Queue: 2 jobs
Job 1
Amino acid sequence: MGTPRPFDRDAGPLQVLVRELLHDLQPDADLVEFLDSPPEHYTVRIALPGQLGKTLILSRRLLEAARVNPVALRSVRLLLRTELSQQQTSRALERAREARASRAVIEGPIGICDICEKPIRIHDRVVVRQARVAHARCLPRALDAGG
Ligand SMILES: [Zn+2]
């Protein structure tokens, strides 16, 4: 995962807090970045396994309040949960895309027609002639051309 980055000492307990909240919400989520910027804010990057993650900017005031104030804590939790559920959605979409892509490979061309030089798909009728593969529909054309 990400390389640990330096952070100022004050950020330590806040970083721990965010990590704990994150772990509660989604045990396999990871806090990959915790930066003391922009001013008065922290930039937090959380990622699910196999994802680059997305940054979330949290107000320093809110995070500090979250350590002592249950309402602020709930707000931070909600922000993290929203971010996580967006990431889960995009991960699910990505997986669906990958599944479609791998199916496309299976259904993709199985060869190139020796006559029209277009791809031959698995559903096409094919003829094999002198160890060459062609669309069945292309064969009469080849015969017309003498060959
Ligand atoms: Zn063909």
Job 2
Amino acid sequence: METILYIAHTESNGSLSKASMETLTAASDLAKKLAGATFVAGLIGENVQSAVNAVSNCGASKFYAVEGADFGSSRYASDVAALEILIRTANATIVLASSTSRFCRAMPGVAYRLKGLIDTHVSGFETGSGKLEIQRWYYRQRMVASMSRTQRPWLLLVDSGIYPAFQAQTGSATLQKIDMKLDESKKKTKVVGLQAPQTTAQTIRPDAALLFVAGAGWTKKQADGQIHIKDAERIILDFLNSSNASLGSSKSLVDQGSEGEEVLPFLSHLNQVGQTGSTPRHPKGLAACCHGEEPHTVGWRFINERRAVNLDPNCGWAQGKADVLYVADAFQVMTKVTELLTKK
Ligand SMILES: Cc1cc2nc3c(=O)[nH]c(=O)nc-3n(C[C@H](O)[C@H](O)[C@H](O)COP(=O)(O)OP(=O)(O)OC[C@H]3O[C@@H](n4cnc5c(N)ncnc54)[C@H](O)[C@@H]3O)c2cc1C
């Protein structure tokens, strides 16, 4: 019989992230579907009691914790030690954790120490055959595989944006604290502060309801024979600020900077969506001044509703890549959309 251990780390304010709450939904569903499975939870953080209370209704029969100032921030050595002891204490055979940067870094080392196996970017679970099968995408999200393993413990890092966040109902839960003394060799790395970009520069917003993709057309000569980079910059930023959309880009647009052409200063290769870029998950997507070629639109695999604005009625979006194509000037359309949004 399997013992499913859900593991999460607290954020700096002591809560659990949206991604962790999504993985909790997955873990709690899986525990109900996998016959005879035991479901337990484990938390890591400086002070985890309020986070545990918030998820006390998740169905876990025990809540383990590795707690203290040494576990407040991400650090490979202390995280690996804490995760290892949590999994050993719980006698877990299946471990579910979300793909946070903290766990992505530490969990593979934990699997090695436990002589277990790890699978990352897990996007689904099946239990129809009576045993656990996971789903995972390959080849830039073009092929999906279902697979199972016999080796235990089996550590699974679950991607965000797949499951709804667990609906917390604050209650109270008894913590089983694991007493852990870290030796000095595991504390050599110290977090001395956080540096984050200004909010206006932070254009990648994984939790946004809308992905707005800018294409190279924004930097091309327009009907008057001129390029209008400054206008493009203002129109795009105004729209992002009024809609809170996440900003994606085509490869052509972000490549222009390295080719010495005039570019939009807030875009980098991190914004690139597509075969050699990212495959973000958002309920809706809107592309403007982007042609919609296959190497780009393959990155839209997980965007549920797709719309595009392009002057060209024969662009790629019109060839079955978008649900709606507006054949129009994106400079005018996006200015009008922002005007309507800010009027509300
Ligand atoms: C191996 C490989 C991997 C690749 N990986 C990626 C990837 O990860 N991501 C990616 O994006 N691409 C990728 N590409 C490149 C991809 O094939 C396209 O070249 C790229 O997506 C084109 O970018 P674009 O649509 O922004 O530019 P363009 O093709 O130049 O299109 C610009 C569009 O803007 C429109 N336009 C211009 N002015 C306006 C206006 N005022 N209003 C409305 N529309 C206007 C034009 O009609 C045109 O359709 C890859 C290619 C290869 C070979």
